[in-house]
Amino acid sequence: MATKKFMFVNRKAPYGTAYALESLEVVLISAAFEQDVSLAFIDDGVYQITKGQDTTGIGQKNFSNTYKALGDYEVNKLYVEKESLEERGLTQDDLMDLVWEDEDEDWTEKPSIIMVSRSEMADVMAEQEVTLSF
Amino acid sequence: MKFTIMVNEGPYQHQSADSALQFARAVLAQGHEIFRIFFYHDGVNNGTRLSVPPADDRLIQKEWSELAKEHDLDLVICIAAAQRRGIMDEDEAKRQGLDANNIIEGFRISGLGQLIEGGIEADRTVVFGD
């Protein structure tokens, strides 16, 4: 099957709606289909990858660890929009340390998070062939 | 041109379902092809046959069903999203030990791989959601 550039655009907070959880399910399937997968985190979507998520008070499953597993599925391009972080009083230090291991460099750990400006994000989106927005 | 359409919101609650339906009609009217329409999130509710809106309102699920019949469309409901929200076909209801099914004619239930395949096979993938 052909390989295309797939981008999953995450715009919503991790809890409150099902979008983030169900988006992750699609991401994992697309990786199984060996597509060239990127993720974008914009607007409240940046909260999906913040550190220290605790769902005990809302009675829902905390699925934030799934983002840490993405590197194992060769999903290692996680574009995070700087302006969205800034608008919410967040910095990259508030985000989880998401990494992948580079097979070609003796499994060296490399960061998966790529910080981009709003206009750079637009450029990355323009390069995609299939963009699914959640 | 070949299209895949993704519908992420339920009928009546959100404009997306109507917009997707109208977009699908426009695509076909202009002579394009629809490879697949994939229903995800609350969009799976577009596939129930048990909706009964007031008599003067549109029946969105029936409109999908009729459009599918007329143009031989492939309308696919995501199985994981459907299970959460209680959209069942006969086989799935039986498999889950449930006493009823509610899928409307013209839809089928399958996996998320169908969405990815749709993205690969189509020239354009268009998402209708919130």
TrEMBL record, chain A:
Coiled coil spans: none
Name this protein carries in UniProt: tRNA 2-thiouridine synthesizing protein C
Family indicated by similarity: Belongs to the DsrF/TusC family.
InterPro entries to which the protein is assigned, alphabetical: DsrEFH-like, Sulphur_relay_DsrE/F-like, Sulphur_relay_TusC/DsrF
Gene3D superfamilies reported in the protein's UniProt record: DsrEFH-like
A Pfam family matched in the record: DsrE
UniProt cross-references to PANTHER family, sorted A to Z: PROTEIN TUSC
UniProtKB/TrEMBL annotation, chain B:
Pfam families assigned to the protein according to its UniProt record, in alphabetical order: DsrE
Keyword Transmembrane annotated: no
The name this protein goes by in its record: tRNA 2-thiouridine synthesizing protein D
Main location as per UniProt: cytoplasm
InterPro entries hit by this protein: DsrEFH-like, Sulphur_relay_DsrE/F-like, Sulphur_relay_TusD/DsrE
UniProt organism field: Cocleimonas flava
NCBIfam families found in the cross-reference section: PRK00207.1, sulf_tusD_dsrE
Recorded family membership: Belongs to the DsrE/TusD family.
PANTHER family per the UniProt record, alphabetical: PROTEIN YCHN (PTHR34874), SULFURTRANSFERASE TUSD (PTHR34874:SF3)
Keywords in alphabetical order: Cytoplasm, Transferase
Superkingdom of the source species: Bacteria
Keyword check for Transferase: yes
Any single GO CC term annotated in Swiss-Prot or TrEMBL for this entry: sulfurtransferase complex
Gene Ontology terms for molecular function: sulfur carrier activity; sulfurtransferase activity
Localization: Cytoplasm
Record-level GO BP terms: tRNA wobble position uridine thiolation
